[in-house]
Amino acid sequence: MVNALPSGSGEFRRVLWTGLYSQVVLMTIPVGGDIVFKPVQVHTVDQALTFTSGKAKATIGGEEKDVEAGDLVIVPAGTQHQFVNTGPTPL
Q: What is the pLDDT of the chain when averaged over all its residues?
C-alpha cells in the first residue's frame, strides 16, 4: 500500500473497489474531524483499516482504543464502529 494515497486523494472518502465481502476505500479525516454516524456506523462486510498518518480514538463494538500511523484495525461485519481524529495532523 502506498501511504501517500489517502492524503493525496483530495477527497474525504473515495471507494476504489467493492467486492462481495469487502471494499477498498481511501479516507482522510481532518484534524478534529471524525467518522461518527447517527445511528452508529455498521457494515455488512468485514473491514481492515490501515492508518497511514495521524492519531485517533477508535470505538469498535463498544471498546475504545487509541490508534496511530502504522496500526491495523479489524472491524468484523455487523460491528458498530467510530473513529475520531485526536492528533495534530490529518488521519
A: 82
In this structure, how many other beta carbons lie within 10 angstroms of the beta carbon of residue 23?
Answer: 14
Nearest-angstrom CA–CA distance, 57 and 35: 11
Q: At 89, list the grid cell.
A: 495532523
Q: Is the Cβ–Cβ distance between 34 and 85 less than 8 Å? A: yes
> Which residue from 80, 70, 66 is spatially nearest to 36, judged by alpha carbons?
80
CA geometry: angle at 31 spanning 89 and 4, to 5°? Answer: 45
pTM (predicted TM-score):
0.77
Q: Name the amino acid, one letter, at 61.
A: G
